[in-house]
């Protein structure tokens, strides 16, 4: 029995690991009845795998049997992999026992589709219901809704889960019809809209009545696979933007495509596009926390993110006319746009300058990365950058290769690979 | 005439209250205390009571004696400590005050004088100083408090409980700083229905929750107590199974194509590995699941 459960765990964790979502934050579940666990506020990353990704939740599939044949997916029907399926009790037992030992923040439950979407979804709901009601488990639960599952089951899942998600996976309808012929965009967007409306309605009810059970209180998220199909970064961030605006998503995850099956429809890649993925995350952050609009970062003339430099620096280099910015007088919003100044240092600058005039040394101590920032800011005459006199290429080269530049070993490595390939 | 709305950055911080502080006119002293936070607060109270600034403030046990001066030792006075602690709220909010306690727990070599300088600056400033990042002491307090927060957060993540046969969940830690007092609330809230003990092996004390309350506990034979004592007690019969399953899980969620050991170690520094079950030697060799197999005849049969 023990060996069997170990084999199942290895197969079903292995098959779930390509889902990038790891967050366990934003929950509002308190432990009020002396039960087990809580999921309030910030999440905790309990461990990190050797690829540097965090382990926060027990991320598993209920089964990797699947009736679909999506080209990018390791569990596709035609892939010759070992198959396994957990029972409801096995998942519950693993979750509770991992949680009690402080290994995890909770459960991330997804599944391949066996027999029918509703049959699968019903099992997922049974697991989370059992955890919540029989075991008084208040840890974090993220449930992946199964494409095509009925509205009632999704609604019920939302009562027990902190987060629901529907993965879009392929960033365009064309790619979806080519690579995942059994799926369609409508089937993905309908439950997404349903979850959005459920969350909004739940919030309204909560404002009116005292005792209303929560519905997916940590919101919903989705994932896009990057590099399995031909979309430009512009298409991807436009899609992301519409998901944040139109569907109120909490997070969009980007998963650099890793070749898991051989298929003529898929690109032949040797390395997952980790730098591109990283630049997309930086862009995502610029849109959510730095007040940038999607079309400020990319436009049809520049449809791809610069792999060598971060998107904020790239924006600043294209918009040199708005610099230099004087940190002693400029608005917070403008200070946020200086390359090398993060949200934390921007807040500190605005707070500290009430007490004293800031100079370059103070900025360094506040945590500003002067290597990049020095080209774009001034401290009331103390430091005069020469941004106006330098061309875009000159600044770029100085930042990348000039004195004190430390290029990430990873960037160098990947760009070298590009150079070899072309 | 309507007042002109000034930009956000130019708005002066709120300036209420201010009791101020007496000038420290008496000759400075070398203070010693018993090493507790209440003891330090008593010293601070004394500084303003006697108007004698500190040359140094040191725990009595480790005080460096000097040829020329007699240290002024202060016994902890609960009432004076409480007055000092409550009085701090007149010049700072409770968050800033909590930071001072965190600085104390950081075990930084300069912590006592740093706390004194910060308090003195706050007492004498007409405005709230907690965001005055232009001041080196304010930055240092922020920095140490942030380091404490990180260490606390790491311990909330890296504690690994082992279940014993008498249903106790036990963990050993060796944090860089004295974080046990700060993690008590988190673990009490989270594991309300199991008895647990978290033992700081470096500082020889622990936190114990008995299903009703969490207490700081010490063991009679402090030196003798170590992880071996616990492993000598009988573990729950399913404990090795879950440890093994956790290791299996840890190995299989890794994506070898994305290997990045530098990032791995940045998030999970080597010094914490000692007590992480997923970082212990495996009983069995890791066998990867072979995912990437070209669709062959076997698959055609499935369709």
UniProtKB/TrEMBL annotation, chain A:
SUPFAM superfamilies in alphabetical order? Radical SAM enzymes, RuvA domain 2-like
Which is an annotated Pfam family here?
Radical_SAM
Q: Which cofactors, if any, are listed as required?
A: [4Fe-4S] cluster
Q: Which UniProt keywords apply?
A: Iron, Iron-sulfur, Metal-binding, S-adenosyl-L-methionine
Task: List the CDD domains hit by this protein, alphabetically.
Answer: Radical_SAM
Q: Do the record's keywords include Nucleotide-binding?
A: no
Tell me where in this chain the Radical SAM core domain is found.
Answer: 50-293
- What's the protein called, per UniProt? DNA modification/repair radical SAM protein
């Amino acid at each position: 029995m023990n060996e069997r459960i170990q084999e199942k765990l290895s197969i079903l964790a292995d098959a779930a690991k390509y889902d990038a979502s790891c967050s366990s934050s934003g929950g509002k579940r308190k432990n009020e009845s002396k039960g087990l666990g809580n999921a309030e506020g910030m999440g905790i990353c309990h461990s990190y795998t050797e690829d540097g990704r965090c382990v926060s939740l027990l991320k598993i599939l209920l089964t990797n049997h699947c009736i679909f044949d999506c080209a990018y997916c390791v569990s596709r029907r035609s892939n010759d992999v070992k198959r396994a399926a957990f029972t409801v009790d096995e998942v519950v037992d693993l979750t509770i026992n991992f949680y009690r030992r402080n290994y995890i923040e909770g459960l991330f439950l997804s599944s391949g589709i066996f027999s029918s979407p509703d049959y699968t979804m019903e099992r997922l709901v049974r697991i989370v219901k059992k955890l919540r009601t029989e075991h008084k488990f208040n840890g974090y639960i993220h449930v992946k809704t199964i494409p095509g599952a009925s509205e009632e089951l999704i609604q019920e899942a939302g009562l027990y889960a902190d987060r629901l998600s529907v993965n879009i996976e392929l960033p365009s309808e064309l790619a979806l019809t080519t690579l995942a012929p059994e799926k369609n965009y409508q089937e993905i967007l309908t439950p997404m809209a349903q979850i959005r409306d459920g969350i909004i309605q739940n919030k309204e009810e909560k404002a009116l009545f005292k005792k209303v059970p929560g519905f997916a209180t940590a919101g919903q998220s989705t994932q896009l696979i990057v590099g399995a199909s031909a979309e430009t970064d512009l298409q991807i961030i436009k899609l992301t933007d519409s998901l944040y605006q139109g569907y109120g998503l909490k997070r969009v995850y980007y998963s650099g495509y890793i070749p898991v099956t051989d298929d003529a429809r898929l690109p032949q890649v040797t390395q997952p596009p980790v730098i591109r993925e990283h630049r997309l995350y930086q862009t995502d952050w610029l849109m959510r926390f730095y007040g940038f609009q999607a079309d400020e970062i990319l436009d049809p003339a520049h449809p791809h993110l610069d792999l060598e430099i971060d998107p904020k620096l790239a924006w600043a280099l294209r918009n040199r006319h708005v610099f230099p910015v004087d940190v002693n007088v400029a608005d917070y919003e403008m200070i946020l746009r200086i390359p090398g100044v993060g949200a934390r240092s921007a807040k500190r600058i605005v707070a500290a300058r009430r007490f004293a005039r800031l100079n370059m040394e103070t900025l360094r101590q506040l945590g500003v990365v002067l290597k990049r920032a020095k080209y774009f800011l001034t401290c009331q005459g103390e430091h005069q950058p020469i941004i106006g006199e330098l061309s875009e290429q000159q600044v770029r080269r100085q930042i990348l290769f000039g004195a004190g530049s430390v290029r990430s070993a990873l960037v160098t490595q990947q760009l070298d690979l590009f150079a070899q390939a072309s | 005439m309507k007042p002109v709305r000034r930009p956000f950055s130019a708005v002066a911080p709120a300036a209420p209250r201010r009791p101020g502080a007496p000038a420290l006119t008496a000759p400075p002293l070398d203070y010693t205390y018993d090493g507790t936070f209440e003891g330090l607060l008593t010293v601070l109270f004394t500084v303003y009571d006697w108007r004698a600034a500190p040359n140094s403030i040191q725990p009595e046990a480790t005080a460096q004696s000097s040829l020329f001066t007699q240290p002024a030792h202060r016994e902890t006075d609960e009432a004076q400590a409480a007055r000092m602690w409550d009085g701090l709220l007149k010049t700072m909010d409770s968050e800033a005050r909590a930071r001072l306690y965190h600085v104390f727990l950081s075990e930084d070599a300069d912590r006592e004088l740093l706390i004194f300088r910060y308090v003195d600056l706050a007492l004498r400033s007409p405005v709230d100083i907690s965001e005055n990042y232009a001041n080196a002491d304010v930055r240092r307090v922020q920095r140490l408090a942030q380091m404490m927060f990180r260490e606390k957060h790491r311990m909330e993540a890296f504690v690994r409980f082992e279940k014993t046969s008498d249903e106790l969940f036990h963990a050993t830690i060796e944090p860089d700083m004295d974080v046990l007092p700060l993690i008590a609330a988190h673990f009490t809230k989270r594991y309300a229905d199991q008895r647990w003990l978290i033992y700081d092996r470096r500082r020889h004390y622990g936190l114990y929750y008995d299903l009703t309350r969490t207490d700081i506990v010490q063991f009679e034979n402090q030196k003798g107590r170590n992880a071996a004592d616990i492993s000598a007690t009988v573990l729950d019969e399913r404990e090795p199974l879950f440890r093994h399953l956790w290791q299996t899980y840890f190995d299989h969620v890794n994506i070898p194509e994305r290997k990045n050991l530098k990032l791995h170690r940045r998030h999970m520094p080597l010094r914490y590995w000692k007590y992480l079950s997923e970082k212990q030697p495996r009983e069995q060799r890791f066998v990867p699941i072979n995912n990437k197999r070209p669709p062959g005849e076997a698959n055609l049969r499935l369709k």
